[in-house]
User: Fold these one by one.
Assistant:
Number 1:
Amino acid sequence: MIDEHEWQSVLQVVADGTFSQAAKHLFVSQPSLSQCIKKIENELGMQIFDRGKTPLQLTEAGRIYVETARQMQIIRKNLFRQINDIAELRSGSLTIGSSHTRSICLLTDALANFHQRYPAVQLTVVEGSTVRLQEHVLRGNVDFALLYEPLDSKLFNRVPIMQENIIMAVPFNHHLTKAFNNKQPIPYPKISFKFFQNEPYIALKSNRCMSVIYDELCKSTEVLPKVVFKADSILSAAELCAKGMGATMVTDMVIKRNLWSKTPFFFELEEKIKPRQLVAAYGVNQILSKAAQVFLQFLH
């Protein structure tokens, strides 16, 4: 009842929302695609799409069909991953999900080194928010994604990558740095978050993990900095901090990369903040390909 050509056609229509657009991506005529969908619906005895709505909406039977088709898509990908493994990475592909910050700070060197060793493996990085990356994992769109704990063990398998410590960054000429005579002490001096009451602060947007840590810290200390900007990434927040716009929180992973035009001044917070555990996450029903397993070795 279900063959690959048919379920791939249904998934393309779902992705595009119209028969005409899906037909273009499938390189078939619209009447041919419509006939294919009609054949499936005749076999099921029920409609897959509610054609009275634009974009097309799935019926209840359609939702069941699409869920099954996506499972078959994952099974098919797993089959070819195993076959590609036999070739000992002489072919194949690897798709990694990551945030922009982790791509720059963690993946860049690993991608270059992996490509030098295995040039025939096609590498792709898909960037997005935490929510979007989790969706990519669960849909089987990526081999793994770099995410932070906690993750649902019923949905995700994880390989630990590293722990990241939270560090407070301020402009180098900030009034809180005057006691250090323009020199950065190592280890970083400690400071309480309470000193940042009403201080200019660069926060991260609410869809970023760091925003949760910031909110919890404000609540536990009853401190409210003066948010002057909401950045989309730790990298951009740190660069604005370095240019004198305000304080922000970064991680030691970002500090080690040292991408700033001018380095901020760093403090260790007196308040206890649990380190962030970065993992490579993949679906519980997904096989971690040999290419993925080898690549992860380049991250350590």
Number 2:
Amino acid sequence: MNQSASRTPRPTNKVAQWLPAVAAAGLLGTVVLAGIALGGGGDDGEGVVVPASAEGVSQVASSLPPLTVPESIPDVTAEIEDAPEVEKVPLTRTLSKGLAGEDVQRVQQRLTDLGFVPGPIDGIYGDQTIKSVWAYEKLVLGVPSNAPTGKVTPEMWDRMQDPFVIQPRRPNATPDHTEVYLPEQVLAVFHDDVPVMITHMSSGTGEEWCEEVTISPGEYGNRDGEEPIVRGECGVSNTPGGVYTFYRQVEGIRDSALGSMWNPVYFNYGIAIHGALNVPLQPASHGCIRIPLNISESLQDIVGMGDQVYVWDGVREPEENGSPPPTFNWLDPNYETTTTTSTTTVPETTTTEAPATTVADTTPAPTTTQAPASTTTLPPTTTTTTTEPAGGGDGGADGGGSDGGVDGGATDSSVDGGATDGGTADGADSSGTDG
């Protein structure tokens, strides 16, 4: 996959020349507080530090100046000044899934040059090209996030050939930074203000949920365990807007409160950007940012620890929101678990009035002889709605009403469940266990 946008000459952008640098508040303090709130070793200052046994982990703590909302914000696109005249090649048909030919190859090349990720430039209009067109329609053409067609019409192709570039809303951020547009359901990674990955994504639904979850050893709620544990948790699937920094990443599959994520990169407690099989058009996660699985293969190669992450919620500017945490999970007081040998109630005996301290502190060892957690046969399931996301958090089980997981948090469980988003035009399928 070609991850790099061609270094097209940048436009002369007077706004960008004087736009003040926007800095993100550091996560060091909040990371430590997260450990305290989640019962994850806050007393020793560990915060979200992963046990030494976790492999493939990279993390960083950063401290940055206070946030400032810029006085003016660049448009999504900018025309290239003094660009040579473009000799446009007409498109004689509407491109859609399954078609092949040189016209498809030209579209794939142009999308790649703009920073989108249509997959191999092979002239085959497949699922990854469709998702790339979704992102183009939503970000550049302003198509509502649930309504892109995934098709390239002759009119769209004519516009796509104009000499323009995609530019960040926050130039002069950290040299490399990521922008997450929740209303558009699009994510963009910039290197020196040049887009290197623009992709379709799916974020939190805003729904409250209660489910059976599996927590692997080393995760919050099972930090010192040697076997996975299973229990019932509840949470709110919100993705807060704000300004954050990447502070931790893990290679490969990581199991957390709701399943598995592929190559997660964390920026807000347990909320991460990660690969998923199911990335529908509508929000579908428990708070994490799902991106197509094949794109996530190279995500950790193009983002770095300490890079800023700006999340737009469509209501306020990220800097106005600050760096709010997700809504933390709590134990499900009505949970019962069924194993192959017996049916027992949830091991926790305390109520969840103060979930922040009851989850990790009351979790029993996962190695009971009668009903070990590893024998549980019920996979996590999810449902999705379009209710407004809840803000704030009241403590919680595993680090965030998020599907983001390694640091706790109801994870987005990307890899081990859910129908793929396989390029369907309506992207309606948000089912499965992706969180």
Number 3:
Amino acid sequence: MASLQLTFKDIRQEVQRYLGFGRTTAWATMTPAQQGDVLSVVNRGFRQFYSPMPLPNESSGHDWSFLRGEGLISTEAPYSTGNITTIGLAVSIAGGGVFDANTHPDTLLIANGEYRKITEVGGATAASIDRAFSANLSSSAYEILDGTYLLPTDFGGLRGSITFRDNSDEIPLRLVNESAIRRLRSDEPVKRGVPEYAAIVPADTNNTSETAQLYKLSLWPYPDKVYDLFYTYTVYVNSLSSDSYAVADDDHVPIGGAYHSETILASCLAIAEQIVDEFNNPGKMQAKFTERLAASISYDRRNMLPDGFGYNGDHSDHIIPDAKRRRIQTVTRNNVLYP
């Protein structure tokens, strides 16, 4: 059975028609400038749809239910295999130990009763630290504590709590800002134990990177063993095509499904209108997109949200006397948990 889902080809052909390049014009016969215009319009249209403007009488844009991903981070246990030798800021490791892919700035190196942060990894057995030890070390015992972990490349924001499984229970971490983590670490710099606090921090803050903005998760205390941390997040949507467009991209489909395909197309045509029809017929396609957006948001709210918010009471009537059952009787609004 054929699907009503629009593909990238369906959308770009409609954009080609609106821009005057011809709906059935083969991609390869279009000039580089025409191809660039089409790709620019389509990508801008996707961005406008996935991060929509607030509807009239609403204070914020809609949070799409289908842009929710589930994540898992497994923490690192303290690591002390082999031994280290240091000369100034340079550290080398030998005797079976290696700096693995998870070793990065903010990882803590403890040796000789002192602790230093690893600032750069120079390979499997070499690294740099932020400050030299009080004396150069030779074949010394050490310990690495890792309290910072990179989040997925498509991470666009946390939804709800971060939890880990402790026996049969799911335990939430308390989400705080980055400065709170630094304060806790300054009070107890090398504390090991069950993670209690977490903060979301940008992994880099410069405009010279050729990759998307990345984020990292900082924990306190430093994990004393491997913990599986579970969380839900807003997915950062990638482009369906790049500047090096290939015919294979035609089969790609936008996230959102058939029920939102017309809204995605309307968003793209509203962007095209800004380029070619701004003075002759201003706002016609934008108005159509706003109409379609309201319909998509209504559908998303009606079909993807729960029927109720859970039990609303103070438990004084003993309706739910069991503590474990009370734990699941919660109210959430805008992904904020209200116990």
